[in-house]
Every structure is written in structure tokens, then in C-alpha cells.
Write a structure and sequence with these properties.
The structure holds two protein chains of two kinds. In chain A, 54% of the residues lie in helices and 8% in strands. By secondary structure, chain A is of the alpha+beta class. Chain B has one domain. The model of chain B has no long low-confidence stretch (mean pLDDT 78). The chains are: A alpha+beta, B mainly alpha.
């Protein structure tokens, strides 16, 4: 039932005004107090301020935190995410954390090294987090103050796929020995466990294909076959890339069936396969088709195919170099 | 709080928005099925979109307004009773809060149904903190939507558009940009202004970040409560300055 209030219906209630004023005063006072005495977190990230230290630490990805003293958004990220116990533990355990500050005094970046890194990773906003391989190769860039949950997810994903990325990078540069070692370690550690977890679904299969190429080019054919067989044990009969490629390598589907798959740029992979089968002319033809094309999702494979140019016979190499590199 | 205002708000909304609701439901079900078909990553993005401040603003706005056309709010009828304006504002805020949550849980149920039909396996949609996030922030956005709706008609629309796009923009680019060249000196003042506005008016509280941290700051909680009280007080003052009569209906 309606409650009848005999008072003035247009009066501004005193209780509301008092409460609003009281909380406003408390809020201002607390803000001023915390600005002078910021709460100290119990667990802290072991940030390293010296950029050079990172190069001496192997086996862990680098985490560069680009911050600015003048940016309140950086403070928000530090309060929300860098005080979160799970994030602190993940960073301290699995990364080499490096903090780089911009003070805007005297309106230029403070250190030449910082400026160099900002240019290298194309950092345009503060805060920005950059995950890099130990040699400095960009792995992932997270611009802006992401929520701690999303940051945790990105860090976990980076930890899980670190060796896969490191191995794929070595593969793309044509260092098949190192790639074989790293990809082998990744596959042994993960045992295709990431299958069905959406975004990481493709990593083990892509790594298996790359490792197969590495092993074949190192003349370790029996190990290559074992790697392929192990990967195909986890084949779930889905049409998703790179499963059709693995099936083609194993001989269970034909080239025509492979060409019907979703992958728009097959040529680099076919060039790699022709190379390990010692078919230089065929490799040359696939490279001719692949080199002028845009790099699609298999960018590591495309780069590895480009690196093959240097490994072809001199006459074929010269033709490609004249056409595409000069 | 006043029961008549709660009932009026709910009835008027269901009566006036029926056709829109049908379109909204169709879009929602399509979006849910689409997201579930795309896999867990897409489901997560859908949930993030639902919890975005800009989405909260839309949900709350739907309940803060009584009808499609402003000015025909039946307020004249309500205010012929001995109903205080503050009681009207508080009731309206509570109704907006409950209504906005109804929409959120409707989204959640549609997503759950789509998942059960397409992928009958266990998927965690929300954690306890997500639920608290929705409950806490629909209240603050409800209070803000009611306050904005009490502004004069031409200002209310403009303020709503500004708020909507500022949250959308803030969600898309939560970072400080350092300009180069002569514009560099604008960096600090611009950042400070943005910070001041976001801290004074931004009605979002991330309870997980506040409580699940190795440090504790009382400021976000005080800012959250203070913002709600300021919105309600402003809405009451603005409503007191308006006259209503049967002629409006």
C-alpha cells in the first residue's frame, strides 16, 4: 500500500544531502591521505630497472612494462593488476620483468635505451606491456590498462606457448637445429594437452609440422615419422588448419583435397616439403608462387620458406634473388 | 521507496517496449548461438561485452525512462499523490537496478541455453566476482541513468550520448597517449583532466580488484558510494524544479 507522507513533496531530503556531503568529504580526505601514504602491497613484482640485465638471463620470456609517471592509467594498472597475488606470482616465476619509466622531464624520453625500445616495439601509449623472447623478438604487445583477468590470461597463454613461439621463430630463421630442440621440448611438455582449448588448439599441430620439417632436413627421418605419427594420434577429424597438411604429409589425403582446405597460402608449406624431399625444382616453383604473396596466418612457415632461398642450388637461388630481392 | 513507482515503471516498460523487446530477444538469441558456435573465446568476448560500462548504460537507460517519448511519463498522475520527489527517485533507481539486472540474467540464460544445445558440457560463464561486478555496477549505472533522465529533455539526450561514447571510448583505449613535437606539452593536462573526470564520475567498481589484492585502498569504495548518493541527490533536486500537471498527459 502507498505510504502517505504528510511532508512537503518537493522538499530536498536532509538525510540525502548530509549523506552525500559526508561521503564526499570522506572520499576527498581518503584520496588526499592515500596520495601521501600509498598502501604498500605485501607481494611485489621484482622489477629490474637495468635493461642490460635481461640479455644474460636465458630460458624465460622478457616482460617490458612501459609506464609514465604522468599517466594515472598506469597507476590504475599497478593497483589493480600488479598487486594481484596470482599475477605477481606468474610474473616473478615465469618472466624477466623490466620496468621502463617515462617522466616527461624535460619532455623527452629519459634514457636512450628506453627510447630505442619504445621505437623497436612501436609503443605509442602508456601503459604498455611487451612480452619478448630472450633475444628481444616481439612475442606479444598488450597496450593500455587491461583488466587483471585479461592480463592473467595473456600471461598464462604466453607461458604456455613460449617454447612453441621460440622454436617457431628459430624455424622461421632457418635454424632447424635449435628449432627441433625447442619444438621437441614444447611437444614433450604439453603432449597435445591444449587441444580443445580454442585459441591454443593449433599450436601443437603447427609445431609438429615444423618439427617434422626440421628433422627431415637434419636427415633424422625415423624421428620425423615418429613425430608425425604422434601428432596424427590426436587428429580429431576436424577440417581446421594445419590438420589437413599433416594428413597430406602422412599420405592419407591427396594434394587436391589439401587445396580445398581453409588455408589460403599453401605454397610456403609445399615449398618446405619439396625442400626436405630434395626436389629443388619443385621447391623453386612453389617459392616463386609464394614469395610475392602476402603472408597469411602461417607467418612462421612463410618466413621459413623465404629462408630456403639461400639453401637452393646457385642457379635457382640467383633467379629468385634477382626477381624478388633486388 | 514507493511501491506504486516500482509497479508503474515495470508495467509501463513492458507495455511500451514490447515490440522492441521482441527484436532485442531475437538479436540476443542469434548473438548467443553465434558466440557459442565460435567457441569459448567468443563466449568470453560476449560476456565481456555484456559487462562493458557502455552496455550497462543502455540496459539501465531502458528502465530509467518510462516511455518512448519523454514528457509522457505519467509523473503527473503519480505526483497528485502525497509522494515525495526523493522517494520517487530512489524507487526509480531501485527499479532501474532490478530491471537492468533482469536483462543481464536474461542474456546469461540465453547463452546457457545455446551452450547446452550446441555443446553439452560444463563451461564456466561467470565467477562469483563477475556476479558481484554486475550487481554493484548496475546499481551505480541505474542511479546515473535516473539522474541523467531528470535533466531537461534536450540536455538528457546529449548527456546520454556523451556518457555512452565516453565509456565505449574508455573501454577501447584505456591508456595515455604521449604526443610528439609541439603537442607534447598537452599530454599532462589532458591526462589529468581525463583522470579527474573518470575518478569523479566513473561509476564502475571492480570488487575483485579491490578485495583480491595484496594491498587495500578504501578510495574506490568511497568513490562508488559517494557517486551513487550524488546522482540521487542531483536527480531529486532537478525533479523538484519541474512542474507536472494532468495537461501533460
Amino acid at each position: 500500500m502507498l505510504k502517505i507522507n504528510p511532508g512537503d513533496t518537493t522538499a530536498t531530503p536532509l538525510w540525502l544531502l548530509i549523506s552525500a556531503s559526508l561521503f564526499l568529504v570522506l572520499r576527498v580526505a581518503a584520496s588526499l591521505y592515500e596520495a601521501q601514504h600509498p598502501p604498500v602491497p605485501k607481494e611485489q613484482i621484482a622489477w629490474k630497472e637495468n635493461v642490460e640485465i635481461s640479455k644474460q638471463i636465458e630460458g624465460k620470456p622478457l616482460l617490458y612494462y612501459f609506464r609514465a609517471d604522468w599517466s594515472p592509467t598506469c597507476l590504475q594498472l599497478e593497483t589493480d593488476s600488479f598487486c594481484n597475488p596470482e599475477i605477481v606470482e606468474t610474473i616473478n616465476k615465469s618472466f624477466v620483468p623490466m620496468r621502463l619509466s617515462d617522466t616527461l622531464k624535460p619532455l623527452v624520453l629519459d634514457h636512450n635505451k628506453t627510447k630505442e625500445l619504445i621505437q623497436k616495439y612501436a609503443v605509442s601509449v602508456f601503459p604498455s606491456l611487451v612480452i619478448a623472447l630472450p633475444d628481444g623478438t616481439l612475442f606479444e604487445k598488450i597496450p593500455g590498462a587491461v583488466k587483471h583477468k585479461n592480463l592473467q590470461k595473456a600471461l598464462d597463454s604466453a607461458v604456455k606457448t613460449f617454447k612453441a613461439v621460440q622454436g617457431s621463430e628459430a624455424f622461421a630463421r632457418g635454424d632447424f637445429d635449435l628449432a627441433n630442440k625447442l619444438l621437441g621440448e614444447y611437444l614433450a611438455e604439453n603432449k597435445y594437452a591444449l587441444v580443445d582449448e580454442s585459441e591454443e588448439f593449433f599450436w601443437p599441430f603447427e609445431c609438429a609440422f615444423r618439427r617434422y620439417i626440421c628433422l627431415r632436413s637434419l636427415s633424422k627421418d625415423s624421428e620425423a615419422e615418429a613425430c608425425l605419427t604422434e601428432a596424427l594420434k590426436h587428429d580429431n577429424n576436424k577440417p581446421d588448419w594445419p590438420l589437413p597438411l599433416l594428413r597430406y604429409v602422412a599420405g592419407t589425403i591427396s594434394l587436391k583435397e589439401l587445396q580445398k582446405s581453409e588455408e589460403p597460402n599453401l605454397e610456403p608449406d609445399l615449398a618446405l616439403l619439396a625442400f626436405v624431399n630434395h626436389k629443388d625444382q619443385e621447391c623453386f616453383e612453389h617459392l616463386e608462387k609464394s614469395l610475392p604473396r602476402t603472408i597469411y596466418k602461417s607467418r612462421y612457415d612463410s618466413r621459413a620458406a623465404r629462408a630456403l632461398v639461400a639453401k637452393l642450388s646457385p642457379d635457382l637461388r640467383k633467379q629468385l634473388e634477382l626477381k624478388y630481392f633486388f | 521507496m514507493n511501491l506504486a513507482v516500482l509497479v508503474y515503471t515495470f508495467l509501463l516498460r513492458t507495455k511500451k517496449f514490447r515490440k522492441i523487446d521482441l527484436v532485442f530477444d531475437a538479436m540476443l538469441i542469434t548473438a548467443c548461438f553465434g558466440s557459442v558456435m565460435q567457441g569459448p573465446g567468443m563466449v568470453q568476448r560476449f560476456i565481456d561485452l555484456m559487462m562493458n560500462p557502455a552496455t550497462m548504460m543502455i540496459m539501465a537507460w531502458g528502465f530509467a525512462t518510462d516511455s518512448m517519448v519523454k514528457g509522457t511519463e505519467y509523473q503527473a498522475l503519480l505526483f497528485t499523490r502525497p509522494l515525495t520527489r526523493s522517494s520517487y527517485v530512489v524507487s526509480k533507481t531501485i527499479m532501474t537496478w532490478l530491471g537492468a539486472q533482469l536483462v543481464f540474467w536474461k542474456c546469461f540464460l540465453a547463452l546457457l541455453a545455446a551452450n547446452l544445445l550446441l555443446h553439452p558440457k560444463t563451461v564456466t560463464f561467470f565467477t562469483g566476482w563477475d556476479v558481484l561486478y554486475i550487481v554493484a555496477n548496475t546499481l551505480s549505472f541505474g542511479a546515473l541513468a535516473v539522474a541523467v533522465h531528470r535533466l531537461p529533455t534536450k540536455w538528457a539526450g546529449l548527456a546520454y550520448i556523451l556518457l555512452f561514447y565516453s565509456y565505449l571510448g574508455g573501454a577501447a583505449m584505456p591508456a595515455g597517449v604521449k604526443f610528439t613535437g609541439s603537442a607534447q606539452s598537452a599530454t599532462v593536462p589532458m591526462e589529468m583532466t581525463r583522470d579527474a573526470l573518470s575518478h569523479v564520475l566513473y561509476p564502475v567498481i571492480d570488487l575483485e580488484a579491490v578485495f583480491h589484492s595484496t594491498t587495500f585502498s578504501i578510495v574506490p569504495i568511497l568513490a562508488y558510494i559517494s557517486n551513487i548518493l550524488i546522482y540521487i541527490t542531483l536527480a531529486t533536486i532537478m525533479l523538484n524544479r519541474r512542474e507536472f500537471s494532468y495537461a501533460q498527459d
